[in-house]
Write a structure and sequence with these properties.
This protein is an alpha/beta fold and 500 residues long. Helix content is 39%, strand content 15%. The chain has a 6-stranded parallel sheet, sandwiched between helices. A 6-stranded parallel sheet has the order 7-10-11-12-13-14. A two-stranded antiparallel ribbon has the order 8-9. Strand 5, helix 4 and strand 6 form a beta-alpha-beta unit. The longest helix has 19 residues.
């Protein structure tokens, strides 16, 4: 039986624990005495405990993140009741910034902060030799990247067939955006490019086609970015999918040329815009050229097949509801395929916490620690934006309402969709478990009654969207409205008859 178990709880089955694989790859002589186990946050804690104790490991190390800290707390509490002599070691972002620690830290025997590839194996060697460190908190040591064993061989064939394959060509970030833990890095450091591409080729030969790069700044060094894109261009296939996080204001011509060669469905770019407000950008130490950002997003939409997933953050210090709306409208006008409306979270150790008092940033004490109110945005309005974000995913990002969305937003995207969101919540009292057919019916009601869209126009647009959805049974308004509503040049009646 292994002496060491390393484990974590993933948010979904499709995810893989990249950090655990790095840890396992660098366990050295202890690797043969180590087992890697992954669970999901949906699993019952007591069942996870049972599976962990079946390993009879003397040490269990947990990777603790904002998305699993509550569930890991439950698992560790049960473990300590049943097997108090099992040594519990915690690592990961949620426990790396003492004294700001979650309550599960009180139950742990040891905590490794920061990077664990050197410090965790050293700690395990000490513990297994009965040489217990005097301090509970062990500061993780930063390894030279060329000294790290790569993790990629520890993706199983099942991982490659069924799950996301995370990779990184560089580690760290040179920027200092205060809402992000990467702002604590001194710079971005690249892995040896030839070695990295060699590992990617092995994964590709094993059948990997879905690569998610976790580099915070993929397009920071253009030579490396172009080389990686050219590597995959030489291996294009119908099922190849590449996800990158990109800096929005750095898209030189050589990089554009490489991007433009990819066909549809291969590239997804996660573009962190966050805000277009220059005063807020300065306040949170974010360097972003808004003009270049807008120009680059426009170029990507007009001259490439990349799918753009652009991020905004609501609740930043100094922002207002109206100010956030201005940023949303500017981003909407640039026409990315998706706009991810994120709600500011309190990350332990993030420099943005220095603004908590001046801007009265109040966070939910429970993970994921979402912002509840600020000096400039009330609790009620932040709840409205939270619902806006959920309904935007259902209507704006899903692609199911492509014909209807322009009628909803018209020439005031944020204000009108906020009205739509408020009305939808008033009718459902929920942001979840709204059946698609019911969503179409509610949308017809809201756009005609709240947003004053002519019923014939609304029915024609929704009929087209519903037809593309593939659903068979039409919503009630499509069944009833054809004879009850005057149509515009007969379009609504004509499209509706497809369902009758």
């Amino acid at each position: 039986m292994p002496s060491i178990a390393i484990t974590t709880l993933n948010a979904r089955y499709i995810h893989t624990a990249f950090g655990l694989r790095y840890l396992y790859a660098n366990m050295g002589k202890l690797q043969t005495d180590t087992v890697l186990l992954e669970f999901g946050i949906q699993q019952r804690p007591i069942e996870i405990v049972e599976k962990l104790l079946q390993q009879e490991a003397r040490i269990i190390g947990f990777g603790v993140y904002i998305w699993n800290v509550a569930e890991i707390s439950s698992v560790v509490a049960i473990l300590k009741q049943i097997s108090p002599d099992t040594l519990i070691v915690l690592g990961g972002p949620e426990v790396s910034h003492p004294p700001d620690l979650p309550t599960v830290a009180e139950l742990a025997d040891y905590i490794v902060t920061g990077n664990g590839e050197i410090s965790f194996p050293n700690l395990c060697e000490q513990l297994l030799s009965e040489l217990k460190p005097p301090e509970k908190i062990v500061t993780g040591k930063m390894a030279m990247l060329d000294a790290l064993a790569p993790p990629y061989a520890h993706y199983t064939d099942t991982d490659i067939r069924q799950r996301i394959i995370y990779v990184e060509a560089s580690r760290g970030c040179p920027f200092k955006c205060e809402f992000c833990l990467s702002s604590l890095d001194t710079t971005a450091k690249p892995f040896n490019l030839n070695d990295f591409l060699w590992e990617m080729d092995i994964l590709y030969q094993r059948g990997a086609r879905h690569f998610k790069f976790i580099d915070r700044t993929f397009n920071l060094k253009v030579d490396s970015s172009v080389a990686i894109l050219e590597f995959f261009l030489a291996r294009l296939s119908e099922d190849l999918y590449l996800h990158f996080e990109v800096i929005p204001d750095n898209l030189p011509e050589r990089l554009k040329q490489a991007i433009s060669q990819f066909p549809p469905g291969v590239l997804q770019f996660e573009v962190g815009v966050q805000t277009f407000d220059p005063d807020i950008q300065q306040l949170i130490s974010r360097k972003q050229d808004n003009h270049k950002t807008a120009a680059n997003l426009s170029w990507l939409r007009q001259h490439s097949n990349a799918h753009i997933h652009a991020d905004l953050i609501a609740g930043l210090p100094g922002d207002t509801l109206a100010g956030f709306g201005v940023s949303f409208d500017k981003l909407f006008a640039l026409n990315p395929q998706e706009i991810q409306v994120g709600i500011l979270k309190r990350l332990r150790g993030a420099p943005i916490n220095r603004h908590n008092d001046n801007y009265r940033l109040r966070y939910d004490p429970h993970p994921p620690y979402a912002i509840l109110s600020t000096r400039d945005i009330s609790f009620t309005d932040l709840q409205r934006v939270t619902r806006f974000a959920r309904f935007w995913d259902l209507i704006g990002n899903s692609g199911r309402f492509a014909t209807t969305l322009p009628l909803i937003v018209a020439d005031q995207p944020f204000d009108r969709f906020l009205q739509f969101s408020d009305a939808l919540y008033a009718l459902t009292d929920s942001t979840w478990q709204i059946a698609l057919k019911r969503l179409f019916e509610l949308t017809f009601s809201i756009v005609t009654e709240t947003l004053a869209v002519p019923p014939a126009d609304a029915m024609a647009a929704l009929a087209e969207d519903y037809r593309r959805s593939g659903e068979k049974s039409p919503p009630m308004f499509l069944q009833q409205a054809a004879t009850a509503i005057p149509t515009k040049r007969g379009v609504a009646n004509k499209r509706q008859k497809q369902y009758l």
